[in-house]
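Look at one such:
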Amino acid sequence: MSLAFFDMDGTLVDGDTNEYTLSYFMREGLAPTISFEKVKSFQNMFFEGTLNIEDFIRYAVKPLLKYSKNERDELLYKTITKTIVPHIFTGAKKALEFHKNRRDTIVIVTSTMDYIVEHVARILGIEYYIAAPMAYDENGVLTGDINGIVPYKQNKVVRIRKFIEEHNFSLDNSYGYGDSINDLPMLGLCTHRYAVNANALLKAKVNEFGLIEVNFRE
């Protein structure tokens, strides 16, 4: 039994889950304060590795601040089922099945907000996830703040090491899957390192980090 770490956007999902959800909110008139151009700007900085992730999170959470926990959960489940599930890569499904058959422990590791990732994980039958930890009030309502370390770039390693310590897991014979330069610190922890649909920035690091290139579109 091994650990298998999967980045989410671009690795499990063909595209950006934040873009999918925010676009749906805008189409439904739920996010009048969100600018699609601003979201695309954040997305471009993410793939270039220059994004201040906290700035994006505090921007992207705005449409959900007005909802109760039950209202938010209902909206997000509906949104994710409609807009994200259809974009899960064929290859990602095969990789997840491979690890489930081996009884490996699968963990989603992403800088996306925990209120999105929990639904994606549940739909995919994944028990564990490491995501941007959001702050909630005593009734489970989002405050708009961040409550801990966002697993982005090197902080993916920080959060993974904490996760391993808490659960008494081991990195021996571990697997890592990522699609962007931001995933390199996480991949560097793992025994088996997979570059999923790698862009030019990640391709340039294949030999240096001993990455195996895979195409999850197939």
Q: What stands out?
A: The chain has a mean pLDDT of 93. The chain has ten helices and eight strands.
